[in-house]
Write a structure and sequence with these properties.
- Chain A: GO terms for molecular function: 2-oxoglutarate synthase activity; 4 iron, 4 sulfur cluster binding; metal ion binding.
- Chain A: It holds the Pfam family Fer4_7.
- The complex is a heterotrimer of chains A (85), B (383) and C (282).
- Chain B contains 13 helices and 16 strands.
- Chain B has 383 residues and is an alpha/beta fold.
- In chain B, strands 2, 3, 4, 5, 6, 7, 8 and 14 form an 8-stranded mixed beta sheet that branches.
- In chain B, strand 4, helix 4 and strand 5 form a beta-alpha-beta unit.
- In chain C, 31% of the residues lie in helices and 16% in strands.
- In chain C, strands 2-1-3-4-6-5-8-7 form an 8-stranded mixed beta sheet, sandwiched between helices.
- The chains are: A alpha+beta (85), B alpha/beta (383), C alpha/beta (282).
- Chains B and C meet through strand 2, strand 3, helix 3, helix 4 and strand 10 of B and strand 2, helix 2, helix 4 and helix 9 of C.
């Protein structure tokens, strides 16, 4: 028994899926995308890029909703998302 | 729109003649800040510019006035400002930016006596070395010294032409007397005035390199919005205009910045001679002091001395070779200037010990009386 | 699986803003965690969103870390002298009023050495967008006290804490006559982008203050890592559009007001010049 009403269009709302692209060698490892991703689908990788930073990787790629927040907070033009095909 | 060239005979001050020269030269943007004795240049430009499709703006200080004319110059227009000593000091910062970014513009300095607020606002020629070296770093620019309101008209046009041709700030080093004195100024028909415009880029925009020089060492200059997507910086930069922080890039840039002036001295330097043919004593002067020199030549000649006058129209770059050659054939060189020795030391350097050098200077505030020059001649030379 | 073949990793790079940046100059000079990059990226997104052709924009910067922005945008751009971006940009605007002029610079550049130019451009309602990356410090020179450094903060030139009070930038912009005044942080980057977009389309002098961390030269001496600063932006800010700019001083203890403070209409400098000085004569 729920105390809230089920929105009538729940079945119709389609959550967008996104695909994140990381331009690893531009990354300086600030971690903003990882910290502030609303679905927490990014994590630091173990790899080093050519500047010696750990770029992010998609730890749970299916969780991306293509909100672009990582893309717009990234100070390095190093990450962006597109709608998943 | 009103005619840009006010052809005819006028009785106007040097300051107004500078403004009329600028408009005749095609100047369409003036960034101002009031200062005696240069204010009248601004006042006249404020009145004239909107009628010829130009823009006048009085900025909050001379730093801003100088910055505004650099910015405006990159939109493709010819730009100018005018000031005097204290304002000239404030302009030095952005004068350097103009040199480094190769931005054509003209700065009129109607000199008064310093240092600091000095003797407002009586005449002086004490900013000549500041004109040459006032901004930090090593560089070349062009400075011209008018001696009359008529000169103010033509020399301002000359300043624009040289500035556009060599993409360098050009200084018109007038002084309070020239600026405030009214004399007859003949403004010719517009067709008789030769105008030069900055070299313009041709060819593919995506391959354009901002500082790739032409044969004379000067690079073509695009205007904002033409699609060349240039980056212009006061940092040491390469041919693309991109900052490069290496001594090698610095050397390459400086070689070209200095070279475009040093390799074109014959085209840039203008001098005049008066009764020099048989002279064995030569007065070297510029600006208002040329008029002292002219009278002194005639007076000394009357007393039996073979005196001539060598006038620097272009003070910077300095006509080193000419002075050196003159020094080889005369007994003495006398520099007349309203300071206590600035251009005099340049004359001394270029004379290189071949002739005696003397200074007839003045601490400032008045034109030098010709008698002072004649007295010196009588004191040290035999007729 | 090697890094090169892992899905979602593109080593070639085709960032949506690549057409507006000089990719041959990337990576830029800004330190890891510096907020300037985000503010700059936001500005580029806002430019893009206007739909106006890029060559109708020009960017002018002064000196300092954020002053380097002009060097990374692929439009006609000018990196000028310290504090002088606004008068340089004013020259551009008055000579070519059809251009969209953006000044992108830092707090030290715009409000200490360039403070006089700022107030006069606002007074004249010079039609330009001024974006100030406010990191509360002189970053490029190594962390000296700025006109925006909070009282008591430690910097290399206030080793015992800053004895002075900082400027309230939105209040100053408003008092001087700006048409549009907003403040956001780099964490509020969507709002920031919308604000810059609005400012670009707004006629008159628009000012946007962007709070941004300087983790190396401010944060380090004040026990704030860049992520701490962003958490502070999340927890200690209050969004209040239309707030009185007099209440906009930066006090994270009390809460910092963000939003659009001012959005008003006034004739611009170039319009007034044309109307006042250009006499139509036949």
């Amino acid at each position: 028994m729920a105390f809230w009403r089920q929105p009538l269009d729940t079945q119709e709302i389609h959550i967008t899926k996104g695909l994140v692209t990381i331009i690893e060698d531009r990354c300086k490892g600030c971690g903003y995308c990882i910290e502030f991703c609303p679905t927490h689908m990014l994590a630091f990788s173990d790899r080093f890029n050519k500047k010696g930073y750990h770029p992010p990787q998609t730890s749970r790629p299916d969780d991306c909703v293509n909100c672009h927040y990582c893309e717009i907070i990234c100070p390095e033009f190093a990450i962006y998302s597109v709608e998943a095909p | 729109m009103k005619p840009a060239v006010r052809t005819g005979n006028h009785y106007i001050t040097g300051d107004v003649a500078c403004a009329e020269g600028a408009i005749a030269a095609g100047c369409r943007f003036f960034g101002a800040y009031p200062i005696t004795p240069a204010t009248e240049v601004a006042e006249h430009m404020a009145e004239r510019l909107p009628d010829v499709g130009g823009t006048f703006i009085q900025m909050e200080d001379e730093i801003a006035a100088m910055a505004s004319i650099l910015g405006a110059a990159w939109t493709g227009v010819k730009t100018m400002t005018a000031t005097s000593g204290p304002g000239f000091s404030l302009m030095m910062e952005n004068l350097g930016l103009g040199v480094c970014t190769e931005t054509p513009c003209v700065i009129v300095n109607v000199q008064r006596t310093g240092p600091s607020t000095g003797l407002p606002t009586q005449t002086g020629q004490g900013d000549m070395m500041q004109a040459r070296w006032g901004s930090h770093g090593d560089y070349e620019l062009i400075a011209i010294a008018p001696s009359s309101p008529q000169d103010c008209f033509y020399h301002t046009i000359l300043a624009f032409n040289l500035s556009e041709k060599y993409r360098v700030p050009v200084l018109v080093m007038a002084d309070e007397i020239v600026g405030h004195m009214s004399e007859k100024v003949v403004i010719p028909d517009a067709r008789e005035i030769t105008l030069v415009s900055r070299p313009r880029p041709k060819g593919r925009k995506d391959r354009f390199r901002l500082y790739q020089p032409g044969p004379d060492g000067v690079a073509p200059m695009p205007a904002i919005g033409e699609g060349y997507n240039v980056h212009v910086t006061g940092l040491t930069h390469d041919e693309r205009g991109y900052p490069v922080m290496t001594p090698e890039a610095q050397e390459e840039m400086m070689t070209r910045l200095k070279g475009k002036i040093r390799n074109n001295l014959d085209d840039i330097i203008r001098t005049e001679e008066y009764r020099m043919e048989d002279a064995d004593i030569v007065i070297v002067s510029y600006g208002i002091s040329v008029r002292t020199g002219l009278t002194a030549v005639d007076e000394a000649r009357r007393l039996g001395y073979k005196v001539g006058l060598f006038r620097l129209i272009t003070v910077w770059p300095f006509p080193e070779e000419r002075i050196h050659a003159i020094a080889a054939r005369v007994k003495g060189l006398i520099t007349v200037e309203i300071n206590l020795g600035q251009v005099h030391y340049e004359v001394e350097r270029c004379a290189h010990g071949q002739a005696a050098t003397y200074l007839v200077g003045d601490a400032g505030g008045k034109i030098i009386h010709p008698d002072k020059v004649v007295s010196l001649i009588q004191e040290v030379f035999q007729p | 699986m090697s890094a090169n073949t892992q899905p979602g990793i593109d080593h070639q790079g085709a960032h949506p803003l690549d057409d507006l940046i000089r990719t041959d100059r990337i990576p830029h000079i800004w330190c890891p965690g510096c907020g300037t990059g985000t503010a700059f990226s936001s500005c580029l997104t806002a430019i893009k969103a206007t739909g106006i052709p890029y060559n109708q924009f020009t960017m002018v910067s002064g000196i300092g870390c954020s002053g380097r922005a002009a060097g990374y945008i692929k439009i006609d751009s000018f990196h000028t002298t310290h504090g002088r971006a606004i008068p340089f940009a004013s020259g551009i605007k008055m000579a070519r009023p059809d251009l969209n002029v953006i000044v992108f610079s830092g707090d030290g550049d715009l409000f200490a050495i360039g403070g006089n130019h700022f107030i006069h451009a606002a007074r004249r309602n010079m039609d330009m967008t001024v974006i100030c990356v406010n990191n509360l410090i002189y970053g490029m020179t190594g962390g000296q006290v700025a006109a925006t450094t909070p009282s008591k903060a430690k910097t290399t030139t206030t080793p015992f804490g800053n004895p002075d009070a900082p400027f309230n930038l939105p209040l100053m912009a408003y008092a001087a006559g700006a048409s549009y005044v907003a403040r956001w942080t780099i964490l509020h980057v969507r709002d920031l982008t919308n604000a810059i977009n609005e400012a670009l389309l707004k006629k008159g002098f628009s000012f946007i203050e962007v709070l941004a961390p300087c983790p190396v030269n401010y944060g380090r001496r004040n026990k704030q890592k860049s992520l701490d600063t962003l958490r502070l932006y999340r927890e200690k800010t209050i969004i209040r559009n239309g707030a009185d700019p007099a209440r906009a001083d930066i006090d994270f203890g009390r809460g910092v007001i963000l939003g659009t403070f001012i959005d008003r209409d006034r004739d611009t400098c170039d319009e007034l010049y044309d109307a006042t000085c250009r006499r139509n004569e036949d």
